[in-house]
């Protein structure tokens, strides 16, 4: 086979050793938080009908426009590998009748696919942990979801993040604001970047988070969203902020935070870092009160967030290690049977156990120390004859000989 075909596909990666441990540690931590905040697990298919994402993300979003892995199946149905969870969660709530059991808190995690330019913190197959709180229109739900996110990041030991928050207002406020933006940017259309010229036609809000230096200058003079909130939108957002104050969560209001997906209204937020270069957003979410009805479901409010596992792995200072093992050193093929039987007995006590066929004692010992094994049990001629097992504690370096029963009790 051609050598290049034996490499992982561009933008994908394998996780092994410390990386697979870190990955699973992030998932386990998210699961513990989901349990703590009373979420249920929702396991979803990796592909959906393409319309599910086109309708929810908005035809003008970068994702729906140019980043989806879309293909026809053998019966010419257009399918798409999910680029995010929210749309699939909404589809699932509608198709499975879960709309009748509100409110619902749903936790999902797994791989997602976006055809982006790969770089540090940005992949074509990446992974998220995703939290959705469905059926609660109260601003308390916004504060609770942000608190869930904050507990999660704290539990991972990630420090130095900034919580940026904004409100897009209700759909009317958002419409008014969009109109004002179009009026303002149209005056400078010739000076806008090519991307932003397109945004002006399709999704003017997105000009606000343009990375282009020329656009940034124009954005400084643009109308400010808070001036377009109607009374309800302002009251709602003030309540969200006061709930956050009451539980001591610090935030920075950012007028130009609009998020790249069309379905948001009211609260939007991101936890950002300066440690990941251009990929500053570690966790992001917001309220999407109209999405479920837009997709054909009931009129149900919802809010949620997702966080990229690869980005969390980069930032997390915890380095989880596997449970420490008991290594059974077997000194010849004739003792393998005994080693195998002993391993069965130790494993039945739910202890991580390895059988090591020893050819070079020094090398095997070094490897066990390197892998943080806890004990070594030796099985050779002497042990078979005496019917006792020599066990070495790798912390204290002490050795003792024990009967099988004593040994199992000790472990
Ligand atoms: P998003 O901003 O598209 O939102 O993605 C959320 C997070 O996923 C990002 O902040 C980042 O950590 C990670 N992420 C996104 N793209 C990549 C990539 N190419 N490589 C690595 N990590 C990436 C959503 O997906 C919304 N569904 C969030 C949400 C849930 N809103 C409400 N509920």
In terms of topology, how is this protein built?
Elements: H1 18-36, E1 40-41, E2 47-49, H2 50-57, H3 62-67, E3 69-72, E4 78-81, H4 86-95, E5 104-113, E6 125-134, H5 139-155, E7 162-167, H6 171-187, H7 194-202, H8 213-220, H9 231-246, E8 252-253, E9 267-272, E10 281-287, H10 291-294, E11 302-308, H11 309-315, E12 326-330, H12 336-347, E13 353-357, H13 361-370, E14 375-379, H14 381-386, E15 389-393, E16 399-402, H15 404-410
Parallel strand pairs: 1-5, 7-8, 12-13, 12-14
Antiparallel strand pairs: 2-4, 3-4, 5-6, 6-11, 7-9, 9-10, 10-11, 14-15, 15-16
Histidyl-adenosine monophosphate binds at residues 84-86, 114, 116, 121-123, 126, 128, 130, 132, 281-286, 304-308, 310-311.
Brief description of this entry?
With 411 residues, this protein is α+β, with helices and mostly antiparallel strands. The protein has helices at 18-36, 50-57, 62-67, 86-95, 139-155, 171-187, 194-202, 213-220, 231-246, 291-294, 309-315, 336-347, 361-370, 381-386, 404-410; strands spanning 40-41, 47-49, 69-72, 78-81, 104-113, 125-134, 162-167, 252-253, 267-272, 281-287, 302-308, 326-330, 353-357, 375-379, 389-393, 399-402.
């Amino acid at each position: 086979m051609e050598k290049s075909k034996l490499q992982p596909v561009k933008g994908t990666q394998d996780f092994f050793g410390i990386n697979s441990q870190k990955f699973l540690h992030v998932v386990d931590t998210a699961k513990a938080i989901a349990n703590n905040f009373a979420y249920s697990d929702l396991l979803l298919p990796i592909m959906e009908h393409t319309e599910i994402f086109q309708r929810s993300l908005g035809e003008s979003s970068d994702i729906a426009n140019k980043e989806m892995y879309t293909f026809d199946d053998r019966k010419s149905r257009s399918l798409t590998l999910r680029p995010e969870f929210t749309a699939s969660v909404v589809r699932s709530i509608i198709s499975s009748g879960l709309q009748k059991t509100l409110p619902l808190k749903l936790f999902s995690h797994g791989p997602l696919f976006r055809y982006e330019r790969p770089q540090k913190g940005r992949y074509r197959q990446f992974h998220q942990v995703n939290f959705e709180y469905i059926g609660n229109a109260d601003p308390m739900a916004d504060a609770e979801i942000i608190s869930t996110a904050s507990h999660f990041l704290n539990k991972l030991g990630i420090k130095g993040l900034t919580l940026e928050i904004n409100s897009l207002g209700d759909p009317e406020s958002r419409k008014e604001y969009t109109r004002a933006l179009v009026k303002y940017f149209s005056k400078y259309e010739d000076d806008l970047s090519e991307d932003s010229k397109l945004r002006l036609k399709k999704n003017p809000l997105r000009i606000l988070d343009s990375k282009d230096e020329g656009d940034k200058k124009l954005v400084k003079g643009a109308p400010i969203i808070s001036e377009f909130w109607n009374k309800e939108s302002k009251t709602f957002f003030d309540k969200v902020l006061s709930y956050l104050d009451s539980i001591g969560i610090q935030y920075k209001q950012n007028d130009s935070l609009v998020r790249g997906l069309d379905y948001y209204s009211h609260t939007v937020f991101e936890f950002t870092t300066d440690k990941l270069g251009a990929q500053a957003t570690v966790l992001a979410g917001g309220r999407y009160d109209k999405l479920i009805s837009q997709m054909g479901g009931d009129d149900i409010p919802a809010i949620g967030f997702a966080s990229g596992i690869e980005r969390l792995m980069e930032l997390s200072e915890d380095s989880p290690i596997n449970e420490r093992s008991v290594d059974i050193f077997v000194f010849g093929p004739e003792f393998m049977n005994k080693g195998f039987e002993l391993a069965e007995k130790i494993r039945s006590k739910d202890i991580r156990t390895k059988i090591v066929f020893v050819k070079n004692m020094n090398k095997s010992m070094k490897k066990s120390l390197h892998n943080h094994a806890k004990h070594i049990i030796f099985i050779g001629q002497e042990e078979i004859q005496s019917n006792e097992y020599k066990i070495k504690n790798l912390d204290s370096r002490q050795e003792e000989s024990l009967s099988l029963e004593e040994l199992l009790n000790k472990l």
